[in-house]
Amino acid sequence: MAKRTFSSFEIFLIFLLVMMTGITVALLSLLFITSGTIENHTGKYRDGYHIGVGRADCTGQVSDINLMGFSKTGQYARGILTRLYSRAFILAEPDGSDRVVFVSIDIGMVSQRLRLEVLSRLQNKYGSLYRRDNVILSGTHTHSGPAGYFQYTTFVIASEGFSNRTFEYMVAGIVKSIEIAHTNMKPGKIFINKGTVDGAQINRSPTSYLWNPQSERARYSSNTDKEMVLLKMVDLNGEELGLISWFAIHPVSMRNTNHLVNSDNVGYASYLFEQEKNKGYLPGEGPYVAAFASSNLGDVSPNVLGPHCTNTGESCENNISHVILFQASMCVAMGPGQDMFESTQIIGRKIYDKAKELYESASQEVTGPLASAHQWVNMTDVTVWLNSTHTAKTCKPALGYSFAAGTIDGFGTLNFTQGMTEGDSFWDSLRDQVLGKPSEEIKECHKPKPVLLHTGELLKPHPWHPDIVDVQIVTLGFLAITAIPGEFTTMSGRRLRQAVREEFEAYGMLNMTVVISGLCNVYTHYITTYEEYQAQRYEAASTIYGPHTLSAYIQLFRVLAKAIATDTVANLSSGPEPPFFEQLIVVRLGKGYWDPYETHQTFLTVEKYEATSATWQIIHNDASWETRFYWHKGLLGLSNATIQWHIPDTAQPGSYRIKYFGHSRKQDLLKPAVLLSFESSPSVFEVITTW
């Protein structure tokens, strides 16, 4: 038999066939291995996560301390409408290998000092279990909580000092809520849902929004983010544990004329949800925890009737300087109610109603591994890549003229207006004499912002603004929570979400849901887009690191997203650690006044007499929306307390009494003062009927 020979072409075909067969076998083997890995990986989460929820009081002082948010002189706390709470959620992988903590706190914003102290106490108790990378602290941004818990001089001045009492109440409440959540952890499942909230918000700087490119604006149906993202948490038996909701709205339904400590519209939504789920419990009690957290709310107002001139009733925007001295305050945004209390309830109920709808229909389960990434960054010195060939820099902090104008939700009191792109010789001269002149470098870097306060160059008694800022992302499967150290405007939030989502997709993590969680970890005022910055309304004047601040954050959060997606978080540098200052300027308390400085479980109760058991049953406390506690400073160390019960139509006929719980200061000659607790109750009264 003749020997078979092959041509060069046939040999090439045989070689190609063998190679293709080998490649096919390799790919099939890889697919088999990978599919097995994926099956095992997702199988780990088929039974969900370990979930713990906790809530703790962090109210603190309710008198003689500034309320934080409006920075209005004389807006001191003089009582309480609702309590303030820290709501903690711990989510852990079934084997406990990784976990994340999200805490929503009824305060104006989280200060750096607050976060550092909380992390220190957690480390002392739990070691390395709860860390800077896996713990997010987020403020709801109520403007009706106490101030005084900051270390940077700008905020210390706004607070009229540092209050160690308030600081301790807040730290203790936050830590306690995490401890409760840690103790209550159990296997459970998380479900996610999204929906549109209508009629609850407007953009308070619509002319700034219009500076963004038309092509970008055309992609969105509104100049505010109307979407609510909600997480529903249940245990494996279906028992409801809690929820976290993110929605962009300023909690300023309670105006800058308010003096009662309260959690505003988002707090009212929490109140309604927790009361519904914790049947038979007083407000602030019961196992179910509902957090309504902040998002990209920078230019979003709940005062949906919009700004109107108080003297003419005409619509306005307090735009540029077309007002005379002291008249910018004539342009004020109005809520939907007859007063701020009703407006708070209306907006809060809209948020609650949508959350309830989303909660009841939530069916998409969140599964997948947990991860977290964090860095400290010197935000005064970030090189921003504008494109492949051009860069820009962030700036040392500075506040512009329109910062002093305030907003349509809370106006300033001097002749500053929004939209100022030029300074004023009088104020420049006064600043130069008192604080010194800003450098040409800082003025040039912040253009077109006219610098009013060059805070990045003011270092006494301590720096006026932070240089070192936290950036942080945690992920739960396909959900990414970005912890934002300030107030992003609507379009800023949209750009960041898109950039982070694209970064995840570039490295194989597809279809990620990205949430903006606002007022986290350290406060740095506002973050506008570069285009909005040119308009120099209040939000832009308060973008303290200059026109490229947003681009810097986008760049930094991309780094975190890539690290999570590529499993290289361990290679991230921690960055420069922020300072913890001592010997801060302290708040001067009213000498001799003790009642509202001392913490109470409640300052009041409303009690109903039950004839069958011959006992008084507590039906309301000072966390109830229906009660109001007013404190009035008197003379010679005396004070007056007024308690109101706004009787709801659900009240049952019967005998009632109101009790007050307070403290008095007894001072005997040549003896130290003694603090004595007391309680009092006026006469019993009858509720006959309600209407």
UniProtKB/TrEMBL annotation:
Pfam families associated with the record: Ceramidase_alk, Ceramidse_alk_C
The UniProt record gives the binding positions of Zn(2+) as 141, 250, 487, 526
State a GO cellular component annotated for this protein: plasma membrane
User: This chain belongs to which protein, by name?
Assistant: Neutral ceramidase
Q: Which GO terms describe its biological process?
A: ceramide biosynthetic process; ceramide catabolic process; long-chain fatty acid biosynthetic process; sphingosine biosynthetic process
Neutral/alkaline non-lysosomal ceramidase C-terminal domain location is 598-687
Q: What is its EC number?
A: 3.5.1.23
Catalytic residue list: 301
Molecular functions (GO terms): metal ion binding; N-acylsphingosine amidohydrolase activity
Query: Which organism does this record belong to?
Result: Capra hircus
**Enzyme class name:** hydrolase
Matching entries from PANTHER family are given as:
CERAMIDASE, NEUTRAL CERAMIDASE
- Residues covered by the Neutral/alkaline non-lysosomal ceramidase N-terminal domain: 49-555
Give the catalytic activity.
an N-acylsphing-4-enine + H2O = sphing-4-enine + a fatty acid
The transmembrane segments are 12-33
Q: Which family does this protein fall into?
A: Belongs to the neutral ceramidase family.
Q: How is the cofactor bound?
A: Binds 1 zinc ion per subunit.
Question: What cofactor does this one take?
Answer: Zn(2+)
> Looking at the record's lineage, which domain of life comes first?
Eukaryota
Q: Which UniProt keywords apply?
A: Hydrolase, Lipid metabolism, Membrane, Metal-binding, Sphingolipid metabolism, Transmembrane, Transmembrane helix, Zinc
